[in-house]
Amino acid sequence: MFRLTPVHWKKFEKFVLYIGCHFERQSGEHRIYWRSDLKRPVVFPADKEVPVFIIRNNLRTFGKNFYLV
């Protein structure tokens, strides 16, 4: 089993772009990404590191639609 650890926001952004999301907008320090088959956008702070609970919640957003494009 693997363990999630906090990652730099640019590294998480590369992952989100890799799976097919596109940058929608930025609200303050929060970056918002969208993909047509998602129910809600993927949001994470452009902070130094993205906490584990935000990574986990965004992975849940992908749910069964989590596949590599």
Protein model, in words:
There is one protein chain. With 69 residues, the protein is α+β, with helices and mostly antiparallel strands. It has one domain: Metal Transport, Frataxin, Chain A. 30% of the residues lie in helices and 28% in strands. It is built from 2 helices and 5 strands, in the order E-H-E-E-E-E-H. The chain has helices at 9-18, 52-62, and strands at residues 7-8, 22-27, 30-34, 42-45, 49-50. Strands 2-3-4 form a 3-stranded antiparallel sheet. The chain has a two-stranded antiparallel ribbon with strand order 1-5. The chain is globular. 12% of the residues are buried. The mean pLDDT is 89.
Going by CATH, the architecture would be 2-Layer Sandwich
Shape: globular
CA-CA gap between termini:
24 Å
Radius of gyration: 11 Å
CATH topology: Metal Transport, Frataxin, Chain A
Q: What's the story with the biggest beta sheet?
A: 3 strands, antiparallel
Strand content: 25-35%
What is the average of the pLDDT values? Answer: 89
Order of helices and strands: EHEEEEH
Q: Strand tally, please?
A: 5
Unreliable residue runs: none
Count of distinct structural domains? 1
The total count of helices amounts to 2
Helix percentage range: 25-40%
Secondary-structure topology with pairs:
Blueprint: E1 7-8, H1 9-18, E2 22-27, E3 30-34, E4 42-45, E5 49-50, H2 52-62
Notable characteristics:
69 residues; 2 helices; Metal Transport, Frataxin, Chain A; alpha+beta; single chain; 3-stranded antiparallel sheet; two-stranded antiparallel sheet
